[in-house]
Design goal:
CATH class: Alpha Beta
Order of helices and strands: HEHHEEEEHHHHEEEH
Helix content: 25-40%
Radius of gyration: 19 Å
Largest sheet: 6 strands, mixed
CATH architecture: 2-Layer Sandwich
CATH superfamily: Chloramphenicol acetyltransferase-like domain
Number of domains: 1
Distance between the termini: 53 Å
Strand content: 15-25%
Number of helices: 8
Length: 280
Amino acid sequence: MTESRKGFRMRLSPARKVVLEMMHHARKVPSLPIARKCDLSAVAAARREAMAPPSWTAIMMRAYGLVARDYPELRRALIPWPWTHLYQHPCSECAILVERVWQDEKVILGAKLRAPEDRPLAEIDSHLRHLQSAPVIEINYFRQVLRLGRLPWLLRRFTFWQSLYLSGFTRAKRFGTFMISSLGNLGAEQLHPLTPLTTYFTFGRIADDGEAELKIVYDHRVLDARCVARALRDLEQVLNHDLSAELERCGPAAPCRGGVDTLPSSPDRLRACPTRRKRW
């Protein structure tokens, strides 16, 4: 029997439909990338000495949240309805992209973590490992994504629209204030990823000597290049000082500890985000 020369059609899975909808809104954002070569030797050395070293994504997530405390622009969003204005959230809400296998297909599913700046590294790392290992159907965020993907096209489009463009609080609660993802463990780097959120934080491979490239893709309608460049500069300092100090407390005889006291108190810092949770 000769092999068929024709391919075949495949139905879009609910997860793929959500990605299509996300890209529809992301391409409307006039985003620009800014990258910085950073020396992370101090935090890399502390991570190697830790008893149970957290993932780089957990470390970066917490560091970004700490920097966003002093840069409220990173917690803002442009809301066009009912009139164009900026909304500033009281804390960071991190959107996380996780690759999972669902019904024999590798899909990208989204989850969220509230106020990573107020959580110890061990808790953040445990949350990420749970998202990577627990059954997909047992994770509430993943169930919501799949449920959203099963909606009719028009209803799905409306759900995204009213979540992103009507209320800043609803936008932060459902989608987050920033997104984080990395292909560094695969030796690759994203050049200009798209997101409907104000910022997308990504990083490439962390070399053995700690050299790495950190990148923020930002919405130019909300903040400017110099603000992002300063945030990247301070991010390097936070990683090498505050995060390395927290990792040193994760030595061979102690688990990771940390929290809101890892940075000196400042009258300019906003209060921690309330922990009350709401469903969609």
